[in-house]
Write a structure and sequence with these properties.
This protein is α/β, with parallel strands linked by helices. It has two domains: 119 residues, Enolase-like, domain 1, CATH 3.30.390; 242 residues, TIM Barrel (Alpha-Beta Barrel), CATH 3.20.20. The protein is 40% helix and 20% strand. The protein contains twelve helices and twelve strands. The strands form two sheets. Strands 4, 5, 6, 7, 8, 9, 10, 11 and 12 form a nine-stranded mixed β-sheet that branches. It starts with a strand and ends with a helix. The chain binds magnesium ion. The site of magnesium ion has 5 residues, from loops. Pfam families: MR_MLE_C, MR_MLE_N. Its cofactor is Mg(2+). This is Mandelate racemase/muconate lactonizing enzyme family protein. Keywords: Magnesium, Metal-binding.
């Protein structure tokens, strides 16, 4: 089998209302760079690379990586990963070069699954879940008035999700007002708080101490991803577990986080950290350092499918991040319909490959 072409389709849409994050930041649109690896057998693999601008992922894949890949055997996934990630004198150790390679890597695993007629988790060692399902948490609540956030959270819990994640990071008082409202509304359900690197150390410490009063399950990205020492210090000071990793690339950076004892829940993103090949290695590191891996996943259905394939195969993984916002590019990109039970447990795709596709009608409506 030979790769005949590698290309990217960009998808995008504007949100009905801005989604508020920490420090007055907000998302006004969402998009995806869908990587397609075509072969001479008629099998096409699908993947996704996440960067702030899908057009940059597209440029890197098509102008830098494509020529390295065409003519190669797509089943040589590990060798091709080495070519993409380490053959350019390490100029792109982190950032969008790795994101673009992640999209290619996911597509190569999808080709392999389709070639062997198996879901990718079966190629990664098989299913480690009891019943082919992953426990999900509802993601995300964006910053808004406390009563608006509480009402939305109640709706997620009513749908069966035992845990809800919220975006805060606008200062101690504003955060506490919302945490109190959410805790009162969702009762015993778990509450995860994400501040998207919004604080410096003193403020992160004050807010973290407040979160413990409300029995918060994890405190996500309290500090800049550059501040590994600060994360380690915060983790020692606080009772609430620290989660981080969506802005961390490759196994080498996760090794540093783990060696510094800087994280309780590691959150590698399969579409950024180096693809399926790298995520499973980060999971192995998680096992060795006794750190739970809860992959970050807030993107299209392609990324969701790839994330589930790795999570199903790794004993290090807990808590699937599941988008409950009604995103149009989620279920529409899955081969089979989403199957979420009344306890918020999501069935792992069993279609050959990762279980994702790019239908013509989705491309026609959302193609950029
Ligand atoms: Mg986050």
């Amino acid at each position: 089998m030979e790769i005949t072409d590698v290309r990217v389709e960009r998808l995008g849409l504007d949100l009905d209302e801005p989604a508020g994050l920490s420090r007055d930041r907000a998302i006004e649109s969402r998009g995806a760079a869908i990587v397609l690896v075509e072969t001479d057998t008629g099998i096409t693999g699908i993947g996704e690379g996440v960067g702030p601008e899908p057009s940059i992922v597209e440029t890197i894949v098509e102008e830098k990586y494509r020529s390295r890949l065409v003519g190669e055997d797509p089943l040589d996934v590990e060798r091709l990963w080495q070519e993409l990630l380490t053959e350019d004198l390490y100029w792109d150790r982190e950032g969008q070069g790795v994101s673009a390679a992640s999209g290619v890597d996911i597509a190569l695993w999808d080709v392999a699954g389709k070639y062997h007629g198996e879901p990718v988790h079966r190629l990664l060692g098989g299913d480690t879940t009891d019943d082919g399902r992953l426990q999900a948490y509802a993601s995300d609540l964006f910053f808004d008035d406390p009563e608006v956030m509480a009402e939305r959270a109640a709706g997620y819990v009513e749908r069966g999700f035992p845990a809800v994640k919220t975006h805060l990071g606008r200062g101690l008082d504003a955060d506490e007002e919302r945490v109190a409202a959410l805790r009162e509304t969702i009762g015993d359900a778990e509450l995860l708080v994400d501040v998207n690197c919004g604080y410096d150390y003193p403020e992160a410490l004050r807010v973290g101490r407040m979160l413990a009063d409300y029995d918060v399950f994890w405190y996500e990205e309290p500090l800049s991803p550059y501040d590994t020492d600060g994360l380690a210090e915060l983790r020692r000071e606080l009772d609430t577990p620290v989660a981080t990793g969506e802005n961390t690339y490759t196994k080498w950076s996760f090794r540093d986080l783990f060696e510094e004892r800087a994280v309780d829940y590691a959150m590698p993103d399969v579409m950024r950290c180096g693809g399926i090949t790298e995520l499973r290695k980060v999971c192995a590191l998680g096992e060795a350092f006794d750190v739970t891996v809860s992959p970050h996943s807030f993107s299209s259905g392609v990324g969701l499918a790839a994330t589930m394939q790795v999570m199903a195969s790794s004993p290090a993984c807990e808590w699937l991040e599941f988008d409950v916002t009604g995103y149009d590019l989620y279920e529409s990109l899955l081969v089979s319909d989403l199957d979420v039970d009344d306890a918020g447990r999501v069935a792992v795709p069993t279609d050959p490959g990762i279980g994702a596709t790019l239908p013509d009608d989705v491309l026609a409506e959302y193609g950029v």
